Amino acid sequence: MDTQQKVAIITGASQGIGAGIVQAYREQGYAVVANSRTIKTGTDEGIVAIPGNIGDRAVARQVAAAAIERYGRIDTLINNAGIFVSKPFTDYTAEDYDNAIGVNLGGFFHITQFALAQMLKQSRGHIVQITTTLVEQPLANVPAGLASLTKGGLAAVTRGLAIEYARQGIRVNAVAPGIIKTPMHAPETHAFLDGLHPVGRMGDIQDIVDAVLYLERAGFVTGETINVDGGQHAGRW
User: Fold this and answer.
1) Residues 45-76: tens digit of each pLDDT
2) How many domains does the chain divide into?
3) Is 237 or 187 the better-scoring residue by pLDDT?
4) Does 235 fall in a domain?
């Protein structure tokens, strides 16, 4: 039986969903290496904060190295960092494109390569992407071309990596949220955003945390995307 403390890397960890996931893994007894552009070291000695843009390969290398050097292992990687910009497709700028590709795809690529290399040495590990339900169920009144382009890639690679590494003890899954109530959504928008979900409300951060923790415990689940979206993916209403 493995009695060592387990270690999770969580990107986009300073606020919102990421901060909720950090707290949940700490409550599960994990040490956490947390990354975001603005993250700061706090009072919890079980959290190692590494600031920087995860789309920068040097930052991703530093994040993985911090886990390995301090704890000697990486058990879980949560690819939560992401950029979402809602605009008509023809209004996106080249800068929008570069930012979305750099964080949503580049950030995933860099940190996943480094974490996966360590997981292969251990013959065990779990990787989770936070995508969006808009990949499978676009909404005409929420234009999200760049999110579909980048997060759709993550949905596809989740299945691909799950199959590639299934025999080597590594599981790969994803959670696809609907619209989650975080500080990025102003209170005056809540009524409209509630109405975009069949159940009549936005999701809470805890809804996403619960799905991530389910996948953490579900040792027979790999290559799966769990939609946590109040029924959006099921169809029109």
Assistant:
1) 999 999 999 999 999 999 999 999 999 999 99
2) 1
3) 187
4) no
Distance (Å, rounded) from C-alpha 216 to C-alpha 190? Answer: 31
In a domain, 77, yes or no: yes
Contact 129, 82 (CB under 8 A): no
Burial per residue of 122-161, b for 16 or more beta-carbon CB atoms within 10 angstroms, e otherwise: eeebbbbbbbbbbbbbeeeeebbbbbbbbbbbbbebbbeb
pLDDT above 80 (res 87):
yes
Q: Give the structural domain span for 25.
A: 7-230
The residue among 215, 4, 228 whose CA lies nearest residue 126 is: 215
Confidence of residue 214 (pLDDT cuts 50, 70, 90): very high
Rama region for 125: left / alpha / beta (φ>0; ψ in -120 to 50; rest): left
Distance (Å, whole) CA 39 – CA 110: 19
Measuring CA to CA, which residue among 70, 75, 81, 61 is closest to residue 131? 81
The answer to whether 66 touches 35, Cβ cutoff 8 Å, is: no
